[in-house]
Amino acid sequence: MSASDDGDERESPELDRTPSDRVDVCVVGAGPAGGLVAHRLADRGHDVVVLEAGPRFDPADRLERMERSIRPAHGGREVWEMGGPRDAFTTPGELFYPLNVARAKGVGGSTLHWQGMVMRLHESDFRRRSRDGVADDWPIDYDDLKPYYAEAESALGVAGASDNPFAPPRDEPHPLPAFEPSYSDSLFAEACERLGVTTHSVPNARNSEPYDDRSACVGFGTCKPVCPSGAKYTAESHVEKAEAAGARVLDRVPVQRLEHDAAGERVEAAVYATPDGEEHRQEARAFVLACGGVENPRLLLLSESERYPDGLANSSGLVGRYFMEHLFAGMGGTLDERTRQNHVGFITTESHQFYDDPGAGAEGTESSIPASDDDLGPIKLEFLNYAGPSPVEMALSAETWGDELLSQLREGYGNHVAMGALVGQLPRAENRIALDPGTTDDYGNPVPAVHWRIDDRTRRTLARANEIQRTILESLGVDVEWTVGPDNTGPAYHHMGTTRMGTDPETSVVDPRLRTHDLSNLWIPSSGAFVTSGAMNPTLTIAALALRVADDLDSRL
């Protein structure tokens, strides 16, 4: 079945998108948070409806989507059908924010095209104010999430090893064995050892062996934007499990607004639109917003009323505020030997040595990384496996044939090498998701406006990451050809902080259980609850928070 045929089937009249009678829980969004919450609650006997704005994609189309992703005639956004009025946005802030590069709307959400890296936040991330004197502490700590991190790793099927000496404590091994280091990882390991830099494996939400009715990774190398084999976890898995447990899932029904009761104390209904333009009200005893760090605040702001003139759950005025990102620092070039890049489409080795102490130096037998006295944020160092062009992409875009093309491929492929890093951004109130009434979506609603800039501390941390990267690459003998750093950095597309967590209703949107302060039956399990960003990919923490919310809801219903 082609993607277009699948779209026609989704629009067929036999698909019933009318609302259910009042249910126990209405979940808005079918990504990782929504899928996990829906499955756990449905499995425990609760009546659950999931409303998803995007389509349900057919897994049989994955190979076709992979081919589309590597052909030069197609952009990455086309793979998951992003773009147009449905996905319009503006970026009136100091920096342009390429929102649609990061998003995938549909059953599975962002996990349809994520890389699949899943780490626990460090203990220090929950105590940034106490530890570093910046930002704020979280109202929960690592121990509160520790059991849910373990449950999330089991749910997602995380392949990992307990070989990271800088990671927070854990009580059990990862569910699956870690992926072996790549060939270029071994080259980096030698250079890092000479410098006194410790390397270790990377937890990945992809199967290193068959798990949860999914095959082991077969090495297509196109993990982002699409895994054709299904070895990489997507939230489609838990959405399907939720349906098997009795949940009802409606796709292509974007929620337009939430409506509350006369007292303004509880949400009564989610008003959603169907593809034919009709509106329906889904009533429920409890509501869970699980549509990400941009669409969650947007929906709350769209749900203004006489009781909440500035948007639902926004008596603090902080809905959409404190938007945070992870910034990318990178460096790469060529080496006078083969590095075997693009055989692996994900990262298999990192170093968290500079996470809790980014200014620390490193002493080795050959040379050293100097210490820094600057005020810096956490740094997560990455050793990339996809530096330089792939031979497939080179061949598809070439204008030559035969022996000439073969010569170009041999000359241009195989000796590239690169490092990356994630750097956490400080929470700042002026970084925010707002509404732009001057631009509307396909239903006439104001689109999200991303106001975004980078603070000086983050820029210093990016420069520090580049300093460490250059030292390692030069020790390896790399001819450095490009750098991404403070002046040309970009986002990792991790949306955090827009519905922040706290104990004080005047300075936060949700409480430590992620229930909104203003409405007693509305929960928001999202990276929007993050008080600080850390520098770890956020999905595992989102999953842990979602499972914690599901348990809280289960005890209350």
Account of the 3D structure:
Helix 2 runs parallel beside helix 9 (236-244) and helix 8 (183-195) crosses helix 13. Strands 1, 2, 4, 5, 6, 7 and 17 form a seven-stranded mixed sheet that branches. 52% of the residues are buried. The protein contains 14 helices and 17 strands. It is an alpha+beta fold. Residues 1-13 have low confidence and may be disordered. It has helices spanning 3-10, 32-43, 62-70, 76-79, 99-102, 128-132, 142-156, 183-195, 236-244, 292-302, 391-397, 402-412, 456-476, 539-556, and strands spanning 23-28, 48-51, 200-201, 248-250, 255-260, 267-273, 279-289, 326-334, 349-351, 362-363, 368-369, 379-383, 416-424, 432-440, 446-451, 479-484, 522-523. A hairpin with a 5-residue loop joins strand 14 and strand 15.
How would you name the oligomeric state of the polypeptide chains in this document? single chain
Distance between the termini: 41 Å
* Coarse morphology: globular
Uncertain spans: 1-13
Global structural class: alpha+beta
Give average pLDDT, whole number.
93
Q: How do the strands and helices of this protein lay out in sequence?
A:
Elements lengths: L2 H8 L12 E6 L3 H12 L4 E4 L10 H9 L5 H4 L19 H4 L25 H5 L9 H15 L26 H13 L4 E2 L34 H9 L3 E3 L4 E6 L6 E7 L5 E11 L2 H11 L23 E9 L14 E3 L10 E2 L4 E2 L9 E5 L7 H7 L4 H11 L3 E9 L7 E9 L5 E6 L4 H21 L2 E6 L37 E2 L15 H18 L1
Parallel strand pairs: 1-2, 1-7, 2-4, 7-17
Antiparallel strand pairs: 3-9, 5-6, 6-7, 8-13, 8-16, 9-12, 10-11, 12-13, 14-15
Helix pairs in contact: 2-9, 2-14, 7-14, 8-13
